[in-house]
Every structure is written in C-alpha cells, then in structure tokens.
Design goal:
Helix content: under 10%
Strand content: over 45%
Strand order of the largest sheet: 1-2-3-4-6-9-10-11-12-13-14-15-16-17
Radius of gyration: 22 Å
Largest sheet: 14 strands, antiparallel, barrel
Structural class: mainly beta
Order of helices and strands: HEEEEEEEEEEEHEEEEEE
Distance between the termini: 47 Å
CATH superfamily: monomeric porin ompg
Length: 333
C-alpha cells in the first residue's frame, strides 16, 4: 500500500509541474510547440492529436489537442484557437485549457522572416478530490460514512486561471527555422487549497529545424526529391528539463519519417538516466490531409508504465494557394 501511495504522489507531481503536454509529433504539428506557427502556411488549417501514455499502469494518461488557425495576407497576420484536454484515470485528474493565438510576419532579408506571437488562455484543473474518503469520515462504531470532513488538508475540487504566453520564430526559404516559446508568463496560481499559493512554473522551449543540403545534388530522382533535417528542442519547467534531438527525412513533401532521443541534460533524483526515451514518428500527406503516428520507447527502468502512442490528423483548406510564394511559408512536414 505504501508503494502505491508513493507512486501516486510521484505521478501526480509529474502531472502538476509538467502540466504542459509535450507531444512527440511537435515537429509534424508545430502548433503544439510554438504559437508563431499560427497561420504560418498562409491558409486555413484544422487538426487534432491524441496521446496515450503510461498505458500499463494505474496512472494511464490521455491527452487531446485540437486547433484551428487562418491567415490574413493583407495584414500579414494569423489568428487561431486551440484546445487541450488531459485526463488521468486513477486520480480523476482533469485539465482543460483553451488558448487564443495571434501571430505576425515580418520579412527581415530576402531569405529570412521573423514571426512574433502572443497567446492568451483560460485553464481549469480538477483533481476529483471530492471522491476521496478521509479518515474522520469513517465511523467504525456505526459502520457509516460521514459526508463532511474536518481534515485541514481537504482540497478544493477545481481551480480556474488565466494564462499568458509568447513565442518568436525565425525561418528562411531553405525550410529551416528556429523558435523560442515562453509559457505562463503571469505564473498563474494553480493551488487547490482556499488560501494556497502555488504559482505555475514558467515553461521554456528553444527549438530548431535545420535543413542539411546533403541530398539535393544527388544523381537519382529519389535523392533530388529527398530532404534531410536536424531537429532539436530543449525544454525546461521547474525541476523538469529535457532535450529532444534527432533527424527527419522527407520524401517529395508527401512522406516523412524521423527519430529523436529524449535526453536529460541536468539530472536530479527523478531522472537517474541520461536518455529517457527514444521517439519515432512517421507522416503521410494526401492532398490537403496529413496523417501522423508516433511511438515512444521508454528507456528508464523506474516502472513498467508502457510506451507512448500518438495519432494526428490535419487538413489544409487551401493547399494550392502557396504555389506562387512557397518560400514564405514555414515548413513543418
């Protein structure tokens, strides 16, 4: 029983401070990574992701993400909305947040563009503590359960808060980009006690996608239609830190596959090993649709939580509008 309680609080703390869901397909659906991708393909786009993790444990967690954004060419701006839902089965934990995103685009040189953005959201956390049975509610003499408790640690069931974030993105016409995201600038209070103060840690993410011109001069048609990229994404939030680094191969803008390693640069008591996971993903484009799947291998031996699956689908409403000025769009495939 003691081990179960320890695991419960460990996993609950992970959900608490690493509340920001880190999607393995961030380089296929970059809207999850940086709000400056809002409208970055210069047309309207809608999509969703589903993530299932810790499937072999009592702490199975599911995350759902959906978004819509569009572009206004006259004003060189993009606007969008996104919704995130996360649930954890054992504790009845629920997290929902809706964000409204606004991005702009500025041409710095003939080949480089600058895209700043802001994001404002409203979040709701619910741990379902109303379902807990505390010691003073049990009457062993009468074999009855009291509906109230005097326990001073009794927690509220829900916390609502406003949240503000900002991102920047630089991209060039060689399909390379570099971005920075800073979430929870206002550090909202997420405490579930009446007078508690638990400000949410700021989430930092620095991410890049760099085009390697190794195949463009190939003699075969396959080489000339192929592109190779180096991927990296460093994230930090409170005691949590992670560096995803790897590579992506794209064939004819219709098929994509990649692999990244999840590294822990700054180890602590919760991260005993340097490599936490190996993440693989594939993507397929058909007309305006894009489908993605990723599978993460857990390399830690802390507990057999099961590996991670992700599925994504998106649709570009005006896929042909970018044919004339394709270089002004940000590559995410």
């Amino acid at each position: 029983m003691k081990k179960i309680l320890i695991l419960f609080f460990v996993f609950s703390s992970v959900v608490s401070f690493a509340q920001d869901v880190i999607f393995s397909q961030a380089f296929l659906v970059p809207e999850t990574l940086n709000s400056s991708f809002t409208g970055s393909i210069r047309s309207s786009k809608v999509g969703s992701l589903f993530r299932s993790q810790w499937r072999n444990s009592a702490f199975k967690t599911n995350s759902n993400y959906a978004f819509y954004d569009t572009w206004f060419e006259r004003y060189k701006t993009g606007i969008g909305v996104s919704f995130l839902n996360q649930t954890e089965t054992n504790s009845s934990y629920r997290f929902n947040q809706i964000n409204f995103n606004y991005a702009m685009s500025f041409q710095l040189t003939k080949t480089w563009f600058f895209r700043p953005s802001i994001s404002a959201g409203f979040g709701m956390k619910n741990y379902g503590f109303q379902n807990l049975l505390l010691e003073d509610q049990i009457n062993v003499i009468n074999n009855t359960i009291n509906t109230s408790s005097l326990d001073p640690t009794l927690l509220a069931s829900q916390r609502n808060f406003f949240d503000f974030s900002s991102s920047v993105l630089f991209n060039n016409n060689n399909d390379s980009w570099i971005g920075l995201t800073v979430k929870h600038l206002n550090r909202p209070n997420i405490s579930l006690t009446d007078n508690g103060n638990a400000p949410l840690d700021i989430f930092w993410s620095a991410h890049t996608k760099y085009y390697l011109p190794l195949l463009e001069n190939g003699r075969t048609l396959l080489n000339r239609q192929s592109k190779l990229y180096v991927l990296s994404n460093f994230m930090m939030q409170g005691a949590f830190n992670k560096l995803d680094i790897g590579t992506q191969y794209v064939l004819g803008n219709n098929f994509s596959m990649g692999i990244t390693a999840g590294l822990i640069p700054f180890k602590n008591e919760f991260t005993p090993s340097l490599i936490s996971s190996i993440n693989t993903f594939v993507g397929f484009r058909w007309e305006g649709f894009r489908f993605g799947y990723s599978y993460d291998f857990n390399t830690t031996s802390f507990i057999n939580t099961g590996n991670i699956h992700e599925f994504s689908i998106s649709y570009d409403f005006e896929i042909n509008i970018r044919a004339l000025n394709r270089y002004k769009c940000v590559s995410s495939f």
